[in-house]
Specification:
heterodimer, A: mainly alpha, 2 domains, two-stranded antiparallel ribbon, two-stranded antiparallel sheet, 4 strands, 70% helix, 5% strand, B: mainly alpha
């Protein structure tokens, strides 16, 4: 989602140092803390006639989150030049994105196409592209796995899974 | 001997044919989950939970808890044969288990691991059998202040016992509480932190968080390591098993020590993973020959496995008696209880005797069945690991997506799973602990409710948490655990100055 762009940022050459992501995550937590504090104040952090208001408890949670994430944020900044801890090698990050990007596309596709077709494509893509399988096992596996899910979930346990236009066309 | 009677009644519940079948299915699924990277006890159970919504709760919890035992057993297989911990709690098992496999002693190592898992779990179940009813009876007298104090104790002990930096433990925990607060306020019915998004009305479901953090996050981590499975093969025959068993009684002290460490870490929310490391460390320190550790010392397999199983099992004790889970997996089981319409806590022992004792009896049976199943089927599981990661990885992503979708039949949850997955990866890399986040997300509403009720009783005065000896000592202990790391930091600083 929004994390990847943060990870890729930074002028330094490989490997990626820990301090960048560290700063980004603690900043994100500080932002969440701010959102919690703001909305707690909106719903009321004091007492009403019938007891504490809805923001009474979350307000302190927000304060603690702000304090703890600010501690991490500041200590990262203070040790900025001295901290050489490594987050990951560039090649390692590349393999992580080789998983993360198809996975994101898969979930986006699921919104429109249901779960079955994108699952076939995801498994097929990985087996062909990363596993260097020939077509026969690739097609076989990418058909068999979604079919097994269909049988287990929709037939045995009667739990419906998301379906798209193609399944509708087939009459499900 | 009321417990024995209850337990016998429990056995009669657990020993029915359908329940035995569920047990076997659970163990088998559990071992599979334990063997595959990216699927673990917590997210495996979270994914399968929606399938049990229509089942009778006793059968459902028997199956799900058996998945947990299976996952505990399964983690050892990959650690020993492939030097890949299938589960975080079996990392310590790789230290000596894999060297043993390299020296051609894979069968001995596996037998030792499975047997010690069984022993650890057995001790913990006996502990649960006799301690749980007492604790539940005691907890019946708890008011909101006592409940909040116990919850405070749970969270403070995270801060006190974690190896991670204190600020990160608190951040992770508070993020969990903040996410739990999103949506409808249970007391006033007001909407909080939804910022106009209708998807957030029902709040964040911890099952989605568990599937994302532990499932997707783990897959990303495994990708990073560029996994290539290169393993030792193993066949277990009865002769080796019996031979290993003959040697094991010699290590009774290791067993006892590791069980004690495990039970303690399970009841306090340390969990199985730190328990296994701690137990390994103690075993090495106590050993006459500490240098042999890490080179294939059988005690180095016994200690972490015993402790991990003892911790994993005893984590259910506070969950059943107080409604406070001792580990993320116990938290998922707790979520299951609520979905099946059972209120966890001391009343469970009064109102749903069959359920509680059926579960406890199934722990005895499940671990026995598990031991037999793993001892006889190791080659099959090892074969699963020879499937290339390029096949396993996308299939696990599909499984996680299906699991996340089926919780509420919502696509938004699947998207959230991905967000939690990325967060899980970053948290793991930056050494934020994930267990506090999950537990806070589960317990958030309960903790808030008991805190607000206490505040109502005392008209806003914190003194209610010290108003009687019981609540006072629990709160005191909580504060002690909270300041523990500060004190030891101060001590280190003083020592450094000298």
């Amino acid at each position: 989602m929004k994390e990847p762009s943060k990870l890729q940022r930074g002028p330094e050459k490989p490997p990626l140092r820990e301090r960048g992501p560290e700063l980004a995550v603690s900043a994100l937590l500080m932002l969440i803390a701010a959102l919690v504090l703001k909305d707690s104040m909106r719903v009321g952090i004091d007492w009403a006639d019938d007891g504490p208001r809805a923001g009474y408890f979350p307000f302190y949670i927000g304060l603690l989150l702000l304090a703890s994430s600010a501690t991490v944020f500041l200590s990262t900044l203070l040790t900025w030049g001295k901290n050489h801890a490594e987050f990951a090698q560039r090649e390692q990050l590349a393999t992580v994105f080789a998983m993360l990007i198809p996975m994101t596309l898969y979930i986006v596709a699921m919104v429109w196409l249901g779960i079955y077709l994108p699952s076939m494509l995801l498994i097929g893509f990985f087996m062909r592209h990363h596993g260097k399988f020939s077509w026969l096992p690739t097609v076989g596996t990418s058909l068999a796995v979604p079919l097994a899910f269909f049988m287990v979930f929709e037939r045995w346990f009667l739990v419906p899974l998301p379906k798209g236009p193609i399944e509708n066309l087939l009459g499900f | 001997m009321e417990e024995i009677n209850n337990l016998m009644q429990g056995f009669s519940v657990a020993m029915t044919l359908p329940n035995l079948v569920y047990m076997l299915v659970g163990i088998t699924l559990g071992i599979l989950i334990g063997v595959l990277p990216g699927l673990g006890g917590a997210n495996g159970i979270a994914i399968l939970l929606p399938l049990t919504f229509t089942m009778n709760p006793t059968s459902a919890i028997i199956m799900l808890s058996c998945i947990y035992w299976g996952a505990l057993f399964g983690g050892a297989i990959t650690s020993i044969l492939f030097n890949i911990p299938g589960e975080p709690w079996s990392v310590a098992t790789t230290f000596d288990g894999y060297p043993m496999a390299q020296q051609g002693q894979a069968a001995q190592a596996l037998t030792a691991a499975f047997t010690s898992s069984f022993v650890g779990a057995l001790f913990a179940v006996v502990l649960i059998t006799f301690l749980a009813p007492v604790l539940a009876k005691f907890a019946l007298h708890f008011g909101p202040a006592e409940y909040f104090a116990v919850q405070l104790l749970t969270f403070c002990s995270f801060v006190g016992m974690s190896k991670e930096p204190v600020a990160k433990v608190i951040s992770s925990m508070m993020l969990g509480f903040a996410l739990a607060a999103v949506g409808m306020d249970t007391v006033t019915g007001q909407l909080r932190m939804t910022y106009g998004f209708p998807e957030l009305l029902k709040g964040f479901d911890f099952l989605i968080a568990v599937i994302g953090l532990f499932g997707i996050g783990e897959i990303l981590l495994t990708m990073e390591e560029g996994l290539a499975f290169k393993g030792k093969s193993a066949k277990l025959n009865m002769r080796v098993v019996l031979q290993t068993w003959k040697e094991l009684p010699r290590y009774w002290m290791t067993f006892l020590r590791s069980t004690a460490v495990g039970c303690w870490m399970g009841i306090t929310p340390g969990g199985a993973t730190p328990a296994s490391f701690m137990s390994y460390g103690i075993a090495r320190r106590m050993s006459k020959d500490p240098d042999s550790f890490g080179k294939g010392q059988i005690e180095g397999v016994l200690a972490p496995e015993t402790a991990a199983h003892a911790a994993g099992t005893s984590a259910l004790l506070p969950m059943l008696t107080l409604g406070i889970p001792g580990s993320p997996t116990a938290a998922v089981l707790l979520g299951g209880l609520m979905i099946w319409g059972l209120q966890p806590g001391p009343m469970l022992f009064v109102e749903h005797k069959d359920f509680v004792w059926g579960l406890i009896a199934s722990m005895y049976l499940g671990n026995l069945v598990g031991l037999v199943v793993v001892l006889t089927t190791v080659p099959i599981w090892a074969a699963f690991l020879r499937i290339p990661f390029s096949v396993i990885a996308p299939v696990i992503v599909v499984i996680c997506a299906v699991g996340a979708y089926t919780v509420h039949s919502s696509m938004f949850d699947v998207v959230m799973m991905l967000v939690f997955g990325v967060l899980g990866y970053l948290f793991k890399k930056l050494k934020y602990p994930m267990a506090p986040l999950v537990l806070a997300l589960v317990l958030g509403d309960m903790a808030e409710a008991s805190f607000r009720q206490s505040m109502l009783l005392s008209q806003g005065s914190m003194s209610i948490f010290w108003s009687n000896p019981l609540v006072g000592s629990i709160s005191g202990l909580a504060i002690l655990l909270l300041v523990w790391p500060l004190w030891s930091m101060a001590k280190d600083a003083l020592r450094a100055r000298k």
